[in-house]
Amino acid sequence: MARSRSSSSGWWRYLHPSYYLKRPKRLALVFISFVFITFAVWDRQSLVQEQEAEISKLNEELIRLQDQLREVKGNLGYLGERMIHTNDNKIIKDLVDIDPINEERREKVKEAMLHAWDSYEKYAWGQDELQPQSKNGVNSFGGLGATLIDSLDTLYIMGLEDEFRRAREWVANSLDFNKDYEASVFETTIRVVGGLLSAYDLSGDEIFLEKAKDIADRLLPAWNTPSGIPYNRINLVHGNPHNPGWTGGNSILADSGTEQLEFIALSQRTGDPKYQQKVENVIIQLQKTFPSDGLLPIFINPHSGAASYSTITFGAMGDSFYEYLLKAWIQGNKTETVKHYRKMWETSMEGLLSLIRKTTPSSFTYICEKNGGSLSDKMDELACFVPGMLTLGSSGYGPEKAEKFLSLAKELSWTCYNFYQSTSTKLAGENYYFYVGEDMGIGTSWNILRPETIESLMYLWRFTGNKTYQDWGWDIFQAFEKNSRMDSGYVGLKDVNTGAKDNMMQSFFLAETLKYLYLLFSPPSFFSFDEWVFNTEAHPLRIIPRSDKEEGLGADGKANSRLVTRPFSRKHGRTGYS
Ligand code: DMJ
Q: Which stretches does the entry tag as region Disordered (predicted)?
């Protein structure tokens, strides 16, 4: 008890003032401790406040940067978003290098697409093409929604999400191929099969593949000819393939040799080799009688597989046959399996050199047409895809030939640009004649919003980095804006000299012309040419490497079993729209 009492009184004495007043040292110690604790508490509080202010500043900065990134991604479209994930270094470099002039131009092109699309939605929804003057739709391809399908990938690439979603719903719920209509196998393939496959590759949405298979199955009997060279027309319900009367029973070269990319892609994505077999056989057959200069006339007999006497041209009815020789090689990842395509293409390019002439006095380089043994000094604007094709193909050559074909491409693009610059509307006519001492003169003077020159400028800019090609493309775009734009869409011109308007917004204006313009002003890594190949209607198809031991149809023409590959997967891209 005594112990406890004394310990308790010992503790209380510290609280008694006399304990400190008796000994001043104790008082000083208490004072110093008080000052030290006060300072420590105050210092800690102000530190926390400073840190909080700093954190809130950083948060604001983070939100600002996130907004900026969202904006940039929006401008780049869905693919930009995908590539930010998959191709970080390159895309970040491009983002840093973004050129404000190109940004502005790209926005203008996107706005033009929106205007064309809105007009189509308003006046011609679900029909093949819009007639802007009369404000109605017209079914020039059998009522397959050609403009809508041709536009799917352009909408996707430009990041026009709501428009793409509405188009997708139409494809899923209203697209009906059961039409008693004599369809062009070529046009239906490049626009409809190509457009649907491209939408599938970009979005991963199965509905597009399903529909592509449906229409391709309706076209497939066209290849059931003695030679395997297809008939060019077929009824979508009854079949009955045939050729149009005006060809004298012949098949057209471009119409018969421009289905390889789409049908090979379809086989790769469905695992069913029948599509690929039909179209690859066409090339095998043509290879058997391929001339030493690689130049085939535009008419081929579907019974014998031999060429009939007719014009040789890189313009109408010949053009995309040559384009697909190169692109089937690229699509097949340039492997041994597809080597024969490249070989044939290189042979044809040697033949092309024999058609090259220069004008006087200005030395414009142009491509002649050939009838029998003689050259004719005429060139279609359609042949202005050649500079782009040469640019794309030049990288497969050794340095010397690559340089030779690239400089030919540059010269031809200058000519094509002048097809536009030489008219009062600054829009090109359909074809040109070349006269000694007078350079070029217009033949057919309409302009139907074609894309070929812009397509070539896009490839040249991408491969050379020379911004002049972008400036030329911008000039052409401005001429379309000035002469072809109406409140209700875009029209062609009946005459590029007078500016008189026609009444048609061609579906390829949305599929090709505006898409190539958009790419012309986009950062180079926006679309990788190692990953994608564009069909002749500008629909990008994802390159799926074909192995040298592939189970498909080889260069020997022997059919093998299945080749199964997967399309662009949702995991890597944007989530789908279904
Ligand atoms: C498009 O349908 C394709 O580019 C085709 O290969 C040629 N014609 C038009 C565009 O001009």
A: 550-578
Does residue 301's CB lie within 6 angstroms of at least one atom of ligand 1? Answer: no
441 neighbors 433 (Cβ within 8 angstroms): yes
Q: What are 388-417's pLDDT values in tens digits?
A: 999 999 999 999 999 999 999 999 999 999
pTM over 0.85: no
Q: Residue 320: CB within 6 Å of ligand 1?
A: yes
User: Strand 356-358 to strand 365-367: parallel, antiparallel, or no bridges (unpaired)?
Assistant: antiparallel
Rounded to whole angstroms, how far apart are CA atoms 382 and 369?
A: 12
Q: Which of 128-142, 272-286, 557-571 has the lowest mean pLDDT?
A: 557-571
Binding residue per annotation — 313?
no
Task: Give the pair of three-digit tokens for residue 541.
Answer: 């198809």
- Span 137-158, pLDDT tens digits: 999 999 999 999 999 999 999 9
Active site amino acids: 187, 319, 430, 452
Structure tokens at 43: 């210092």
Atom of ligand 1 nearest to the CA of 455: 4
Choose one of 188, 192, 444, 452 to mutate for the ligand 1 pocket test, by most ligand atoms within 8 angstroms of C-beta.
452
Ligand 1 mutation pick, 141, 192, 261, 320, max ligand atoms within 8 A of CB: 320
State how far the Cα of 401 lies from the Cα of 12, in Å rounded to an integer.
104
Tokens at residue 174, please? 């209203």
**What are the residues facing 239 on neighbouring strands?**
235
